[in-house]
Amino acid sequence: MKNYILLLLIAVCFSCKNENTTIDTSVIEGHKTKLTANDIVNKSIEVSGGEKFKQSSLKFEFRDVYYQALRKNHEFLLVRILVKDNDSIFDMLSNVGFERYDNKDFVKLEDSIAKTYEASVNSVHYFSVLPYGLNDEAVNKTLLADEQIKGKDYYKVKVTFNKNGGGEDFEDVFVYWFDKQNFKMDYLAYSYNEAFGVGMRFREAYNERYINGLRFVDYNNYKTKDTEIKLEDLGKDFENNQLELLSKIELENVEVQLINN
């Protein structure tokens, strides 16, 4: 009888141990662990394509301009091609830096002009693959209070950039809304301080599609007339129909080729 009880206790302990190995790791001692901003971004990148972004060749058109991005591990080449009549302007941003070519001829630019073109090229490519890129070394992430938009619950993450490695627009501030159910990024807002002015934008993702395992969306691009509103509160203004539709951000003819190591 003692042996039977001993075997029963061992079986119960073993069973409990196995249950613990399969239990949801977000629940500890009956309490849910709170996800960090990094956790949320990592999950969002994963459901959007994850590691595939690091080994990809992307092609798309945006407002009649041709773009191509080649990423392989930690190396990248971001291209913009502007075609006018029989001339083609190639803007290329890579780990090495920024270069412009007029057809096949290298164009030497003043540093200030080169930085403007570089920021323009980087901006389009940056938005095209979000949330990929939010784990770059220059990125700082802060978890804000959860928010509900159109009946859905969202995690809200604020992003700022270090001056070193943060690019020409390192002072820009972003806020991202991630669906609490599937971690997809549905909304974003950002502030900017450019030569042409200061302001804020709010974007609503739509037309979701997966191409070769990578998630792409288009955006309704909104502006606000209330210059006193905080960037973090633009989601509330959107919910209350207080934002004005400014434009649409649409990627056309998207092609994805995955690259082997």
TrEMBL record:
<protein>
    <submittedName>
        <fullName>Deoxyribose-phosphate aldolase</fullName>
    </submittedName>
</protein>
<dbReference type="InterPro" id="IPR045444">
    <property type="entry name" value="DUF6503"/>
</dbReference>
<dbReference type="Pfam" id="PF20113">
    <property type="entry name" value="DUF6503"/>
</dbReference>
